[in-house]
Design a protein that fits this description.
There is one protein chain. With about 425 residues, the protein is mostly helical. The protein has a domain of about 230 residues. Helix content is about 70%, strand content about 0%. The protein contains 17 helices and no strands. It is elongated, with a radius of gyration of 52 Å.
Length: about 425
């Protein structure tokens, strides 16, 4: 009794998930199932282990497949089909066949030999389609279910083979014309040709996407599409294209060539799926996205070839403010002198502060010498513009207590005023004037 589980939509999905689990975590039971199907002559027969009951059936090795791996063998098979196709056309048009007993079989007018050739090609195409499907179902990475397009392809080629063999499409067209009369040019032909064309175009598109990895398969499949277009044009417009005597041979040639090209394309892709990989091709970006990327890349290449004119202008503009500043500083030397004066004043203040910190704790001798001096003389020396002949500025600075701190501040102010006076005198001299 088959029972499903959450996450599995069909038996194919369950099989693919089980295969993925077996590949990620192999067990000891898989060693018995992976026994070589064709043992080498040096290996004894006793080394083969029979498959364990309840395990999955053995997957045949690619070398056991009927699809050849060598491209030369594949090309030989396709070339053999082309030779048979050409021989059929030559024999069917020869005059010796007209008086022969095999006229009804080999002549192109009866279409028995062309029908047999088309039946063989379409039957081989159907079998190859289902073979590709069988391998694609065992893909471990195609969880999107893209292998299902091969079901549609197999159904299409099976119906096409049945119609070519039994003329079922002509019977369907006559029935449809009786049931639903239609006043149109070649209405009976259009009844079966339009649905067949729509189905073939849809199948061609979806299979072309699945063949994206296989370049040779995609090219062969496109050739098959062009052969189908040629066969359709000859079928509809054969009387307008060639003479009446050549219409029938041309229709037979194009139709059988389409069937042969389809079989060749699927044979090439079967070799890719069996011997190379059975995984689905990754999704490509849309055409609009690809067109945008190409346009952007082309624009970037063009932009790289343009000389950097704008960059040179920007560098020139950035150099102008520097020259203006230099000219402005050259025209106004007074501001520079003022800045130098301020720097000198700040340096003197720093020196006084350092001296104050060094003399915070005076010795006992310095304290006695400072105590003997009168306080009014100290004030007079600090207020005088120059040094007093009898007073010592250092002794007045080193007075203990708060008087020493006040004298330091007054001495710093006096020195600052003296320095400013000297700077003013230098500016008033005629040799240092700005105009000269």
């Amino acid at each position: 009794m088959d029972t499903g589980f959450i996450g599995a939509g069909s038996s194919a999905d369950r099989r693919r998930r089980r295969l993925a689990q077996d590949a990620s975590a192999p067990t000891a039971s898989t060693a018995g199932r992976r026994a070589p199907s064709r043992p080498s002559p040096q290996a004894p027969e006793s080394t083969e282990q029979p498959p364990i009951e309840g395990d999955a059936p053995l997957t045949p090795h690619p070398r056991d497949s009927l699809i050849p791996y060598s491209p030369w063998r594949l090309a030989g098979i396709i070339l053999l089909g082309v030779v048979l196709w050409g021989t059929m056309l030559v024999v069917g048009q020869s005059t010796a066949i007209r008086d022969s007993a095999f006229r009804e079989i080999l002549s192109l007018e009866n279409r028995r030999l062309p029908r047999f050739f088309s039946t063989v090609c379409l039957l081989a195409t159907t079998q190859l389609t289902f073979l590709i499907l069988w391998y694609r179902i065992r893909s471990r990475k195609d969880f999107g279910g893209r292998y299902r397009v091969w079901w549609l392809a197999g159904a299409f080629w099976a119906i096409a083979c049945c119609c070519v063999t039994t003329d079922l499409h002509h019977a369907f067209a006559r029935w449809g014309l009786r049931q639903y009369p239609m006043e149109a040019w070649r209405a009976e032909t259009l009844y079966w040709l339009v649905p067949a064309s729509i189905a073939f175009l849809a199948m061609h598109r979806v299979l072309q996407v699945d063949m994206r990895h296989a370049r040779v398969s995609r090219i062969a499949w496109d050739i098959s599409w062009w052969c189908a277009v040629a066969a359709t044009l000859v079928l509809l417009l054969g009387n307008q294209l060639v003479a009446t005597d050549h219409v029938l041979p041309l229709q037979v040639a194009t139709a059988t060539l389409w069937h042969l090209s389809a079989a060749s394309a699927f044979l090439i892709h079967a070799r890719f799926v069996v011997h190379v990989t059975n995984e689905a091709a990754p999704k490509k970006p849309s055409r609009m996205v690809r067109l945008w990327r190409k346009t952007r890349a082309a624009a970037e290449r063009v932009a790289e070839r343009i000389p950097p004119i704008r960059l040179q202008r920007k560098h020139g503009d950035a150099a102008e403010p520097v020259s203006r500043r230099q000219r402005k500083s050259a025209r106004t030397p007074v501001a520079t002198a003022t800045n130098q004066t301020k720097d000198a004043d700040s340096a003197q203040r720093d020196n006084l502060v350092d001296t104050r910190q060094a003399n915070d704790r005076p010795t006992s001798l310095q304290q006695r010498n400072t105590a003997q001096e009168p306080a009014p003389e100290t004030r007079a020396t600090t207020r005088h513009d120059g040094p007093h002949p009898t007073a010592a500025p250092q002794k007045s600075v080193r007075t203990p207590g708060g008087a020493g701190e006040e004298s330091l501040v007054e001495a710093a102010a006096t020195l600052t005023r003296q320095e400013r006076r000297r700077q003013k005198k230098k500016k008033k001299r005629p040799g240092n004037s700005v105009g000269e």
